[in-house]
Amino acid sequence: MTIRVAHDFNCPWCWVGLFQAQRLEREFGITVEWVGYELFPKDMEWDYSSCPIEPRNKPSTPGRFAIHSFAEGIAIPKVDRPFEQRTYNAHQAVEYAKTEGVANALVERLYRAHWEEGKDINTLETLKSEAVGIVADIPAMLQAIEEDRFGDQVTDFDQPAHEAGVYNLPTFFIGDQRLAEQPYRKIKAAMEKLLPPDPASLVYRDLVFTNPHSSRPYLFINMVSTIDGKIITGERGEPVADLGTVNDHKIMRRLEHKADAIMSGGTSVRASGNWNPETTIRIAVTRSGDMPYDRPFFTQGKPIVLHPEGSNPNVPSQIRTISFRSWPDALEKLKAEGIEVINVLGGSDLNAQLLEAELIDELFLTLAPKIKLGDTTPTYAGGNPLPREKVQAYTLAECHQIDDELFLRYTRP
Questions:
Q1: What average pLDDT does range 107-121 have in this prediction?
Q2: Could you tell me the CATH superfamily of domain 2-44+63-194?
Q3: What is the mean pLDDT of the chain?
Q4: How confident is the model over 32-36, as a mean pLDDT?
Q5: Exposure check for the chain: N or C terminus, fewer CB within 10 A?
Q6: For position 52, what pLDDT does the model report?
Q7: What is the pLDDT of residue 217?
Q8: Residue 138 and residue 270: Cα distance in Å, rounded?
Q9: Is 180 exposed, middle or buried (0-12, 13-18, 19+ CB in 10 A)?
Q10: Quick check: 44 and 10 in contact, CB under 8 A?
Q11: Cα(76)–Cα(69) distance, integer angstroms
């Protein structure tokens, strides 16, 4: 199912609406189509004559938006942004991106560029740089904007928007309802009338991570394995997307979204295809630096290559590298970067190193109803076996079943 959302990039209500829409996609498995409405059309003059002047001794009170954003748990980033921000070209760029099937990725990129980085997203230069790694044919996108090819897809405020039934942004069109500037619970309730919640949305739905460690981030592993513990379906280094179902993939993305960063070994990154994690910070652990640097894992977000001291990985100059002496040293450096929670996604050797060092706080396991076999087939964690007295015990915190898959969460007692 696809629902339409009327929006504009420079609207603070729409900044909150971005996260509401993404949550709706995760919980209901729907697709959002972003429809451009320009609050300040290119022919509109900027007029400040109606701005009220408050008395100096009047105590401040929260406005309706302040209450709304606080209730939704979404703050406005404190960065300087262009005050007189037009968005006509940005909306046209999104319309072009729809022809390539990548509109939603570009929408998020442009929202973050404006609200988190303070960029003028209406310039061709900014649109060109922000489209890198998302739009395949950037020259064609720029030409479409210059030719005003999609101008008829961008609706102006006020009268044209009102004629289309849009009086506020964002407006969610769900069934026969128009929900404008509404809290997520109202949007969700409208969605539930049309579509029952995606069963995957109920798994780990109340999950919140807090970091009690002063010298390192909080670490959890998330993996999918067969009943006999194997984590691949083909050969080592090949893609494993067929191991778990679409529900496992959704839950994997939810757990990624809950972390500040994901961390994966080199073999897993190479086998991941065009994987683009939900987290902005993505860490690849490698000694050689032999990585697919042209894939979304590295071209989007903020990639970091983490490598042992003494190794000399071949890494492009634009990608950040961090060397480390030991895992406690590595994690201390990552915490200094502001990273509080890390989702570890294998492979087997990386998991084993962190488990042996007793640096893992939680384990997540999707148990797929399959059998692989093989004495040398990689498992959830490889490495050297622990002696009996050092075998680690975990407590089952959650267990969920969807069809024949089990979703398990374990914590250290």
A1: 95
A2: Glutaredoxin (3.40.30.10)
A3: 92
A4: 97
A5: C
A6: 66
A7: 98
A8: 26
A9: middle
A10: no
A11: 8
3-state secondary structure at position 236: coil
What is the distance between the alpha carbons of residues 384 and 6, in angstroms, rounded to a whole number? 55
Closest CA to 360 of 256, 255, 220: 220
| 285 closest CA partner among 373, 370, 346 | 346
Q: Is the pLDDT of residue 278 over 80?
A: yes
User: Which part of the chain has CATH 3.40.430.10?
Assistant: 201-411
pLDDT for the residue 51: 63
Crossing angle between the packed helical segments 184-194 and 12-28, to the nearest 10 degrees:
40
Angle between helix 103-115 and 12-28 (nearest 10): 140
Specify whether the backbone of 74 is left (phi greater than 0), alpha (psi in -120 to 50) or beta.
beta
Proportion of the chain above pLDDT 70, given as a percent: 99
Q: How far is CA 143 from CA 96, 102, 137, 219, in A?
A: 10, 18, 10, 46
How big is the CA angle at 257 (ends 252 and 258), to the nearest 5 degrees?
100
DSSP codes, 328-353: HHHHHHHHHTT--EEEE---HHHHHH
Single out the residue of 75, 79, 114 nearest to residue 93, CA to CA. 114
Residue found under tokens 């002696």: 387
Alpha-helix runs per DSSP H in 271-365: 296-299, 327-336, 348-356
Residue limits of CATH 3.40.30.10 in the chain: 2-44+63-194
Selection from 351, 15, 299, 291 nearest residue 130 by Cα: 299
Provide CATH code, domain 201-411: 3.40.430.10
pLDDT higher than threshold 90 for residue 81: yes
Tell me the angle at which helices 246-258 and 12-28 cross, rounded to the nearest 10 degrees.
140
Residues 104 and 109: their CA atoms lie apart, in Å, by 9
| 399: β partners | 408
The amino acid present at 255, given as its one-letter code, is L
The angle at the Cα of 219, spanning 259 to 403, to the nearest 5 degrees, equals 70
